[in-house]
Amino acid sequence: MPKNIVSPSVLACDFSRLGEEAVKAEKGGAQYLHLDVMDGCFVPNISFGAGVISSIRALSQAVFDVHLMIQNPLNYIEDFAKAGADIITFHIESSSPVDETIKKITDCGCKPCVSIKPATPAEAVFPYLDRLSMVLVMTVEPGFGGQKYMEDTEPKITALRREIEKRGLSVDIEVDGGINPLNAAKASLAGANIFVAGSAVFKSESPSQAISEILRAADSHPFAG
Ligand code: DX5
Ligand code: ZN
Question: Burial, 90: exposed, middle or buried (Cβ in 10 Å; 0-12, 13-18, 19+)?
């Protein structure tokens, strides 16, 4: 199994101190930083774009894990690559052609990831698995932080992990939405290995403690097979 990583989502942080919050997460042990881009079209909320990501790139060495919740991701891949994205995730439910968007992300020097909303079956990403570095299984409806983790997404995580193992691929499975130490253990057991956490990290008294608790929970509940 690939190693477990926590990817704090800055959506839950104080935007007036975005740079400091990003540094705080990194100093607190986060290897990734999750950046939620929302266009008010694919999801009913607007967050921030490539300009904001580019301005915090200079302050952080973390892996920039950019989650595009936008209707036409293909049109913006270059912008996010130039802004400093390392991983670029787009939604299979968006309007962009999947093959072309994966290719564009790879050609721009970034790692491609496809995300599925709660109602989309795991099998929808099977045809692309051999070209992906990660699959993001949404554990809430995308659009807002602070929602409740949906347990019924766990069978999809397991179906994906089994398929990845069956084919001998090394593809990460990221979970995103309502993650805390309790359900990180369950998602890990189901086969996830990258854990996005917004509220659990940035609304906590101690982000570093929150990160290590999620990691400990995941590490002590490895994929059950
Ligand atoms: C939801 C976003 C998530 C969210 C996570 O659309 O993709 O990344 O900000 O935040 P929490 O952990 O608060 O659910
Ligand atoms: Zn996200």
Answer: buried
